[in-house]
Specification:
Number of strands of chain A: 3
Low-confidence stretches of chain A: 7-15
Strand content of chain A: 5-15%
Largest interface: A-B, 31 and 31 residues
Number of domains of chain A: 1
Order of helices and strands of chain A: HHEHEEHH
Number of helices of chain A: 5
Radius of gyration of chain A: 15 Å
CATH architecture of chain A: Orthogonal Bundle
Largest sheet of chain A: 3 strands, antiparallel
Oligomer: homodimer
CATH class of chain A: Mainly Alpha
Mean pLDDT of chain A: 87
Strand order of the largest sheet of chain A: 1-3-2
Structural class of chain A: alpha+beta
Distance between the termini of chain A: 44 Å
Chain lengths: ~130, ~130
DNA sequence: CTCATCGTACGAGAAGCATCGTAGTTTGAC
DNA sequence: GTCAAACTACGATGCTTCTCGTACGATGAG
């Protein structure tokens, strides 16, 4: 059996502000799926999936206000999908890809691929 | 490119009661993920995934009332995850597996596998 | 026809969630 | 110290969702 990737209870932080992340054992599939089921959040995840070192919130432009953006990033963090850390005044977001892959092999890849497929298809007129 | 599996606008029904299903083009990833993000519905999907020919609602025992069960099956049908058809007084449910695989290759398998993985893991005490 | 079974429709209540604006905190630059 | 930038906290609002009970409709068995 594989060993789990670098354990998640990371308290190591450059500054004082620490953000709570669920440990691997606390990540629940239902919560992850719910986090991914919002169009705005799915968009965030897709953007993060294309980077190697994460992005600050401010670089992902979203069709919602700043406070709503904060809300969505919190949902993603609390569900275990992203890791966030402060770096100066910015907050860097990155996918917890290795950890999710360890927990749920193929899930993230499946969702990302599905999102790509859907984008390549004509969107239905109304909904 | 693959051709789509047997088109979805099936009006062929033995009785009179017809149920509306989204066509392939109408199935949205976000809706599917949302449908799968409820514990009760995920349980249903897992049960259906283990059968070949579908199951009547009444054979999947769920920790909710009958009317709530109806609600969850409707969500699953409207999101495009299951197909339902009347058969006598019963209503048979089956996964739209081929169609989902065509739309979103690997997604369903990823989710089902993730559910299995999670079940094999110790559940966290509280949540 | 009568009846039991299976599922639906219709409210209705409680909870959750997405969204926003405004006011605040933290940080680095000057 | 002062200032701008990045993000958060809080409260409010309106929508969706999960849950239920009760009453109803459709089907097949007797």
């Amino acid at each position: 059996m594989a060993t789990s990737p670098a354990s998640a209870a990371s308290a190591a932080s450059s500054g004082t502000r620490v953000l709570l992340h669920p440990t691997l054992a606390e990540i629940r599939l239902e919560r992850v799926l719910h986090a991914l089921s919002d169009p705005v959040r799915l968009r965030v995840v897709r953007a993060l999936a294309e980077t190697r070192d994460g992005l600050p919130c401010s670089l992902i432009d979203l069709p919602v206000s700043k406070s709503t953006t904060t809300h969505h990033f919190r949902v993603l963090r609390q569900s275990g999908v992203v890791r966030q850390q402060y770096r100066g005044t910015a907050k860097i977001n990155e996918l917890r890809r290795d950890e999710l892959d360890w927990l749920f092999p193929g899930l993230l890849a499946g969702v990302l691929e599905a999102a790509r497929q859907q984008e390549a298809r004509p969107a239905p007129a109304v909904r």
